[in-house]
Specification:
The protein is of the alpha/beta class. 38% of the residues lie in helices and 22% in strands. Helix 5 runs parallel beside helix 6.
Length: 285
């Protein structure tokens, strides 16, 4: 599992969240910081960017150890711009954790933030942490019947089973108060999906079926959630890298957000976990 740090409050939240997940799944944590060397000019002659970068990495390691003292942690100091550098690292990650770059605190869409690019383009699942959020709360997972949302549902059940947190499964978009045959089929399908996973993971989940716009409803649910989990892609036929609900939650969720692109499956030898992106391709650490 990899976490990118830049010294911001949200990136330190990402460190703590990643440490908790890595410990749960038996994965090592790699803390990565990227930077560019300063030009060789007189005013920068006595400046060593590596000193400040190494201090930042040590601060992040200490934060992770405070969450899980026995966690295996390594650090990498890489030269380059944050987005492309972290996206390259994502090819070997089970999950990439980052701070939100202030997304949730902006009224207007920031066009310069790395968080948007990384969340949209990463080849693995991405955790986007917030500077401020409720550390205690239920795991909320949004489902819509798509294969992507079923992977998110598996991820959420697995994480809830490992953490002991309450799990709330939210399906949005059902008309109210009218219920037609199509709606009945959707509700039965949702019940089947939940029942199978409750038996598999031996936990009980609460199911909420809400009317309205999925993105708006999940943003409202995020206000009391410990984390929101959703598939990175939805049901829409366009070629975007993120579904519409995922895009909205990326900018407006109050809670940390996990955009699921794959599952962290147990290794055959029981030594930890490996990512399974659902298409037969495995990314090994």
């Amino acid at each position: 599992m990899i976490v990118g740090v830049d010294g911001s409050t949200s990136s330190m939240s990402a460190v703590r969240a990643a440490a908790g997940l890595a410990s749960m799944y038996g994965l090592p944590l790699q803390v990565v910081h990227t930077f560019n060397w300063l030009p060789n000019t007189p005013e920068h002659d006595d400046t060593d960017p590596g000193t400040a970068a190494n201090a930042l990495l040590q601060h992040a390691v200490t934060a992770a150890q405070n969450v899980s003292p026995r966690l295996a942690i390594s650090v990498r100091l890489l030269e380059g711009a944050p987005s492309p550098t972290l996206l390259r690292q994502a090819h070997t990650a089970a999950l990439l954790a980052i701070g939100d770059g202030g997304l949730s605190s902006h009224v207007c869409l920031p066009t310069h933030t790395s968080a948007v690019h990384i969340a949209a383009c990463a080849s693995c699942s991405v955790l986007v942490a917030r500077a401020k959020h409720l550390s205690e709360g239920s795991i909320v997972v949004g489902v819509n019947g798509s294969p992507a949302s079923e992977r998110a549902l598996d991820f959420a059940f697995d994480t809830a089973a490992r953490s002991g947190a309450d799990l709330v499964v939210v399906r949005v978009g059902t008309p109210a108060p009218e219920v037609d045959d199509k709606t009945d089929d959707q509700l039965r399908h949702l019940a089947d999906l939940v029942d199978v996973r409750e038996a598999k993971y031996r936990i009980a989940a609460r199911t909420r079926v809400l009317p309205g716009d999925p993105a708006a409803a999940l943003v409202a649910e995020s206000k009391q959630a410990g984390v929101v989990i959703i598939g990175a892609r939805g049901q829409q036929p366009y070629g975007g890298l993120l579904g519409s609900a995922a895009q909205t939650l990326l900018h407006h969720s109050s809670a940390p957000l996990i955009l699921v692109r794959g599952l962290m499956m147990p290794r055959p030898d029981g030594s930890g976990a490996r990512p399974d992106i659902g298409g037969g391709q495995l990314m090994h650490r």
